[in-house]
């Protein structure tokens, strides 16, 4: 993982566009690896992170035909929310009742 972010003027490491770039500096042993990127390309890396998350969760992004349900996992599974909140502190918990009421 990179350890610092700097700002510089140069070519984007992804699209080669010249301008203001954010430079991620990673320490690789004795040397440093610097990866410059423009704003547009760094925003696109968020898509890469989402893709990795899907892979980690074992979900192929193209295999599922219902992307809407995948984006809100909390709505479809109220039992999972209750499992988290059902701790020894709350016991029966009046908050659980409100959660149950909110779910359709
Ligand atoms: Zn770029």
The unique ligands bound to this protein are: zinc ion
In angstroms, what is the radius of gyration? 22 Å
By helix and strand content, what is the structural category?
A: alpha+beta
Question: What topology, given as strand order, has the largest sheet?
Answer: 1-2-3
Mean pLDDT: 76
Summarize the main sheet.
3 strands, antiparallel
The percent range for helix content is 40-55%
β content, as a range?
25-35%
What order do the helices and strands come in, and which of them pair?
Elements: E1 4-11, E2 18-28, E3 31-37, H1 39-56, H2 67-71, H3 73-76, H4 78-85, H5 94-102
Brief account:
By secondary structure, the chain is α+β, with helices and mostly antiparallel strands. Helices cover about 40% and strands about 25% of the residues.
Characterization of this structure:
- The protein is 42% helix and 25% strand.
- It has 104 residues and is α+β, with helices and mostly antiparallel strands.
- The chain has a domain at 2-57.
- The longest helix is centred in the middle third of the chain and has 18 residues, at 39-56.
- The chain is extended.
- The two termini are 42 Å apart.
- Residues 93-98 have low confidence and may be disordered.
- The structure holds zinc ion.
Attribute tags:
104 residues; alpha+beta; three-stranded antiparallel β-sheet; 5 helices; binds zinc ion
